[in-house]
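Schema walkthrough. Field components (list of strings):
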Amino acid sequence: MAWNRPLIIVLLAVLLALTWWRLQPEDEEIRRSRLIMGTVVEIMAEGLESSKLETAVDAAFAEIARLDKLLSVYHQDSDVSRLSQSDNGSQVTAETAEVLALGLDVALRSGGGFDLTLGGLKTLWGIDGESPSIPRHDAIAAALIGTGPTALTLDGRQVTKRIPELQIDLGGIAKGYAVDRAIAVLKQHGITSAAINAGGDMYLLGQRPQRPWRIGIQHPREKDDVLETVQVSDQAVVTSGDYERFFVQGGIRYHHIFDPQSGFPARDCQSVTIIADSVALGDALATAVFVLGPETGLQLLTQYPQAEGLIVAADGTLHASPGWAHYRAAP
Ligand code: ADP
Ligand code: MG
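Field assembly_structure (string):
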């Protein structure tokens, strides 16, 4: 029988390709989730062998837990708790100073819509606890005394309080900052493609030319409906809404984002989504724009060329910043 030369070459080539493919270390994808900072934090990482991915993801979770111990009011000896307990202020770690610097900047630019000094007000409403309730008006007025965008001043790592009673709450920005730092840890471990979602504070790392990151933005009133889909890479997508933590009394929804002017939950939005270059900035802006409402909120965003926003107003209408359309993807 005569050998068919071309056929043998093709067969050999196929065999060689298969062997090469088998010898490659497997590029895997892992997904892990943990309860940290009062929310489920999910990390997906891909592109390395699974043992390397595991190590990197563990280190990223450890970084979030470490930052929680500095930034949370629920840890007795956190920077934030020590600052609240102090009379005039205290020294904080470099990380806390960085969060405060960004938060105070957004506080000033938003005319006080974003406010890091609402700790007393938040405790009063008990919105994170078992039985939240509407406080008395005089108690709200008392909790707002001395609060505002100039109530805290930062000089390096030294923080000064305007009045001793001031209670600090970084709940509107800390989670975002922690996600940024966790992404940095993943990068240090050689990861170039990953996603972190901490209860609506997301970062999507990597270009992924084959399968770009597409994020569906949840409709604030129809839980299973996607309002819009955006396509991003190396960016934060952060949503603040009135639909995750709230209680209803007398037909009115009371949620966890407060208007510092009234001491009541902000009324002008159902949800705000921000696309930004960092999760910390996106987190702070989502909360700030939520408080300011569609018109003033979009004005605030013009100060941040690295951020775009989509607002669902209280009446259900949609308002987007001019650059938002750039990220819109087909649903
Ligand atoms: P989530 O925590 O659901 O991601 P946000 O980022 O909008 O939502 O943060 C809401 C939290 O921010 C509240 O639980 C509270 O700790 C804090 N907060 C509430 N109102 C304000 C405000 N006007 N400015 C800054 N932080 C606020
Ligand atoms: Mg926020």
